[in-house]
Amino acid sequence: QVQLVESGGGLVQSGESLRLSCAASGSIFTIYNMAWYRQAQGKQRELVALIAMGGSTNYADSVKGRATISRDNAKNTVYVQMDSLKPEDTAVYYCYVVASTVLGPKSFWGQGTQVTVSS
Q1: Consecutive 10-residue averages of pLDDT for the chain (119 residues)
Q2: What confidence score (pLDDT) does residue 81 get?
Q3: Nearest-angstrom CA–CA distance, 109 and 29
Q4: Contact 31, 14 (CB under 8 A)
Q5: pLDDT digits over 62-92, tens only?
Q6: In terms of Cα–Cα distance, which of 71, 72, 68 is closest to 83?
Q7: Angle subtended at Cα 92 by Cα 116 and Cα 28, rounded to the nearest 5 degrees
Q8: How many whole angstroms separate alpha carbon 46 and alpha carbon 39?
Q9: Whole-number pLDDT of residue 85
Q10: Rounded to 5 degrees, what are φ and ψ at 114?
Q11: Which positions ≥6 away from 80 have C-beta within 8 Å?
Q12: DSSP class of 14
């Protein structure tokens, strides 16, 4: 069993910053990719940022220059620092992890954390 616990969401004003955290625990051998997705009301879930095991990163065009994803492998935790937040960043943010388990490579989703940016 693998659990992803997210934290850091909330209500902020336009231009402010937030840092989201996601800690993985349970029967994990190795964590490969870690990522943040988001889903705004009425829209499809989309990738925000991804960080591979080796540290390479990928960002959605909409957050490039405003988001920084990082990971602490010792803590099995992924972070995303979101700066200069805009109302269009309002969404539920989900942590996503690909890890090796006793059943082989598996992907896992967090429960989601709401980020609301007021104008």
Answers
A1: 93 98 94 97 98 97 98 97 98 97 94 97
A2: 98
A3: 17
A4: no
A5: 999 999 999 999 999 999 999 999 999 999 9
A6: 68
A7: 135
A8: 6
A9: 98
A10: -80, 130
A11: 19, 20, 36, 48, 49, 67, 68, 69, 70, 93
A12: T
